[in-house]
Amino acid sequence: MPDQTVLSLRDVTLSFGPKIIQKNISLDVRKGSIFAVMGGSGCGKSTLLKSMIGLLRPSVGEYHVGNENYWAGTDAHRTDLNHRFGVLFQSGALWSSMTIGENIALPLQMFTDLKPPVIRRLVELKLGFVGMLQAIDLYPSEISGGMRKRAGLARALALDPDILFFDEPSAGLDPITSARLDDLILNLRDGLGATIVIVSHELSSLFHIADDGIFLDAKTKIPIAHGSPRDLRDTCTDPQVHAFMHRERDDEEGNT
Amino acid sequence: MTDNTDTGPRSHAQDNAPQWRLENEQNTLLMVLSGTWQARTGAIPVFPKDGLPKTPDGYLSFQTSDIQAWDTGLIAFLWDLKRVAHNAGISLDMQTLPGPMRQLLELLPEAPDEPVHHKQPHTPLLEAVGGHAIASMTEVGVVSELAALTAKGAVQTILGRSRMRLSDLLANTSDAGPYALLIVGIVNFLIGAILAFVGAVELQKFAAGVYVASLVGIAMVREMAAVMTAIIMAGRTGGAYAARISTMQGNEEIDALNVFGIQPSTYLILPAVLSLIITMPFLYLYGCLIGMLGGFVVSISMLDITAAGYFHQTVTSFGIGQFIFGFVKSIVFGAFIGLTSCRIGLKAGRSAADVGIAATRAVVVGIVGVIAIDAIFAVIADVLGI
Fold it and tell me: Which residues form the ABC transporter domain (chain A) (predicted)?
C-alpha cells in the first residue's frame, strides 16, 4: 500500500489560451500521502489544482488517476472518476440557497439511492467529523468564515472520496482554528485512508501535515523543487525555495 | 459463556451484510461486528436507543476482526453506540478498535449540541397584513429619501463638489442608450404596425383609411412610445442594475464604499438614474418615429393612401403639447425605474438566490410601476385637458 501512486502528471503544461501558466509539471502522489503544492502568489498553484480536479484541460501532457488516463475518456467517464474526488474550495463554495445540511445531502441525493433518513444520518455524521453538527439547519450566510470552511470540508467528504483536494484550507483562519483544521485533516487522512492534495502557503501547517510536495516558480513557470516541505526547508539549496521556506524577503524577486 | 445475547438484524440474505451482536458477561460487554459496512448500500443498521442495559461503570469492548470492508457507514453505527453508551454510563474501550476507526470515532461528540433551528415565527393574518402595509409605507419613505439623496448628489455634482465619476455616467448612458436602440426600435415598429392594422380594418369601413395615420401618430406620441420604451428599459436596464448592485452587496463592495465615505447614492445610484433620465426622452422620440414608420409601412401596403397623404395627416394630428406630455412621462419613467431597481439591489440579501430575486423584483416593480404611473398621468391629463 505505501508506494502506490494514485495521481500522476507527466510533462503537463497548463495555459489559458496563449498565456502559459506552468509547464513541464511531472508529479506522483502516493496513496495515503499529503501532497503540498507550494509557491508564491500567482505561480499557478490553484490552476494546477483546477486541472487536477478536471476544471481545466492541460494543453500538453498526461494525467492519470489510478490507472486511468483522466483526459482521454469521455465526459461521463470523467464524472465517474470525479466521484473519487472531494474538493474543499478556497472560500467553501457552499451553495448559498441551501442549508448546510442540504449542501452535504445534495451529492448523496444525486448519486446514491439512499433514503432520506439514511442521508440525514450520513449528513449528521460528516458534520460531526468537523464539529459542525449544531449548524446543520443554518444557511451559509449565517455562519462564520471558518465554519464555512469546515462545512465545505464536510461536503467534500459527502461521497466518501479517497482523494481530497484542499485549496488554501487555512487561509483567513485564526491560528487556533487553523491548527485544529490541520489536526482534523490528519485525522481524516489516517481514519479514511484518503490521499490529500493541498494548495497552501501557510508554512506552519505545511511543515506539520504535508509529507510530499512540489514547488512552482512564478518567474520561470516551471516546478523548481520536489519533496516534502520539511525536507525542502532543511536541504533545498535553491535560493527561491530557501527564501520561501524561511520567510525571507527575496529582494531581487520582489516578494515571495 | 454468554448468558445474555442480543442479536442485531440478520434479515439480509447475503452473508456479507453488516451484522452486530452484543455479548454480555457480567459488567463487560463485547460488541462483535462482522460483514461489509458500507454507507452506499443503505443497509447500515441503527443501534437502538435502549440497546444497552443501564450499567454505571460498565465497560464495552469491540471485536472487529470479522469486518470485511467498512467506510463511514460503520462510523455512523459506532457513533449511535457511543451516544447510547454515554447515556447508559458505559465507557467504551477504544483501544480494542483499529486505529482508523478509533480516530474517526474520537472526532465525534458523544452528546451533540442541539441544532440551531431557523425560527419562523407564525404571524396571525391581521398582523401580517398590517406588517406588510407598514413595510410598504416605509419602503415609499426609503425610496423618497434615496431620491432626495441622489438629487442632492446631482446638485453637488453641478457645483463641482461631488464624487460621481463622469466615466461611470458615460458607461451607464451608453449601455442604456445606444445599445438599447435595436430592441426599442423593433418593439415600437411592431406596435405602430399593429395599431395600423387594427385601425385600418375598422376605419376602412367608413372610407376613413387616412385617419390611420392620426390614430398611429396620437397613440404613439401620447402613450405607446413612452410606455413600451419604459417597459423595455425596466426589463433590460432595471434588472441589470438590481443584479449588479445586489452582487456588489454580496461581495461586501457596498460596505467598502461606505467605509471610505463614498455615498452609494452618489457613486452608484446617481449615474444609474441620470443615465436613464438622459436616454429615456431620446429613446421616446426615436420610438415615436419608428412607430409611425411601422404604421406607415402597413398603411401604404394595405390602404389606398399616398406617402404624402400619410405624412400630412400625421403632422396635423397632434400638437406640441402632446409631445411634451409624452416627453415628461418618459423622464419620470426613467427616474422611477432607475431609483426602484437600485433600491431593490441595495436591499437584497447576500446569497446567489437573492440576486435572482432582486433582478426579478426590479423587473416586476418596474413594469407594474410604469403602467400605474401612466394611469396617473392619464387622469392628470384629463383634468388639465391636454
Answer: 7-243
